[in-house]
């Protein structure tokens, strides 16, 4: 399913562990709840970038579109949840995003570049996980997750292209730095299931 996005596959350090996929299948109520939170957070991230970097014309264009799409995805997940009688509840954040963001440099444009690279990893991993889950879910959820692949892949491309545009220098080393961090966050066990968690701690 990801064969149409070879750059995304190459960008990520690994596939999702099979134990995580099985965990997701067993926790579909939590999966949908956290998915809704992830879409809302993604829209918020895009809006925050628009407020912080008002002089970056291409960023404003790309993030405006991205925020609208993420909010649409939130609405779609929430509609599925309501249809299935699943309450939208507060969830603690996974260690994934914080594990990446705590390494963001504090001076500009490095801060922006790191934030954009992390955005690329978040979107790429989301795309990979939706593709991994789709074959194992009911028809409605499978169709929905497959429908998200194209936009998630484009969001990955947008984030990475913006990072390259605003860095003023090659970003290969910085991408490699965050790829190593992302790999650890994906393969190391987690006590709580989340869209971006590692495999269950007891596996």
TrEMBL record:
GO biological process: tRNA modification
One Pfam family hit: MiaE
GO molecular function terms noted in the UniProt entry: tRNA 2-(methylsulfanyl)-N(6)-isopentenyladenosine(37) hydroxylase activity
Family matches, as CDD domains: MiaE (cd07910)
Domain of life: Bacteria
Name recorded for this polypeptide: tRNA-(Ms[2]io[6]A)-hydroxylase
